[in-house]
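Subject: design request, 252 residues
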């Protein structure tokens, strides 16, 4: 039986309708993909990548989809690492923690706290996977802190051939590439982070005029551990205002 153009279009529409669809957190990026794989171990990540390579397919890995760019889009295989998560170890003496790539930031705090440790800095949301936050260069706040990527030390990556590559501080060039790799080096499976002794934050919220913020900008940045600001809008004509959140580390 020969397919007609109408039957071919119908088959294509049916295939697209049944194919998995991925959408990011902000709902401004979405695409249809042939397969969304959910590996629960490094061995499963390797097997999935090797199958895709043998079939000539492309593979991308998605974290929590917090990025508003199309960096994980693929028509073939998308890895969802949400089942591959957990804090493997946390060492207060070395101030290092080893975590699995799909671990969300929200799930890192408690195990670190119990070990007397904490992340030095993070963004304003905790839904991101640690690997995604690091691979996309997620920033925190404060002049004294690096971004999330700066915490990464040794990292294990499954490369485009399905081989495991261990990148350590002995190869700083490779480590720097991995720190903001946006997935181009391969799929992160295990990360070792440099962390800090646990601490508490004292938060102070103020509403200031934009002019006052501008005038005290250097003072606010220098005397505040973490500094956040945001605009406030009103339909009533008035001078532009902004809210300022100052968070300072306090002794544990």
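Subject: RE: design request

Done. Sequence follows.
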């Amino acid at each position: 039986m020969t397919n007609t153009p109408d039957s071919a279009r119908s088959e294509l529409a049916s295939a697209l309708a049944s194919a998995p669809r991925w959408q990011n957190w902000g709902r401004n990026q979405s695409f249809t993909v042939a397969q969304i794989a959910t590996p629960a171990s490094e061995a499963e990540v390797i097997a999935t990548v090797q199958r895709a390579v043998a079939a000539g397919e492309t593979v991308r890995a998605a974290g929590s989809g917090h990025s508003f760019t199309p960096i994980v889009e693929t028509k073939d295989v998308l890895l969802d690492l949400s089942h591959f998560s957990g804090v493997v170890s946390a060492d207060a003496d070395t101030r290092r923690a080893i975590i699995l790539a799909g671990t969300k930031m929200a799930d890192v705090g408690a195990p670190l706290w119990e070990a007397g440790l904490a992340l030095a800095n993070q963004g304003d949301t905790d839904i991101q996977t640690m690997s995604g936050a690091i691979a996309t260069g997620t920033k925190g706040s404060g002049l004294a802190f690096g971004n999330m990527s700066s915490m990464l030390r040794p990292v294990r990556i499954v490369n485009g051939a399905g081989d495991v590559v261990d990148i350590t501080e002995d190869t700083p060039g490779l480590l720097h590439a991995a720190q903001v790799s946006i997935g181009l080096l391969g799929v992160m499976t295990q990360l070792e982070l440099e962390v800090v002794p646990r601490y508490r934050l004292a938060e102070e919220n103020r509403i200031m005029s934009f002019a006052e913020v501008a005038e005290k900008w250097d003072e606010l940045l220098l005397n505040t551990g973490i500094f956040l600001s945001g605009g406030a809008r009103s339909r009533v004509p008035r001078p532009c205002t902004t809210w300022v959140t100052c968070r300072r580390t306090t002794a544990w």
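The chain has three domains: 5-81, 84-197, 200-250.
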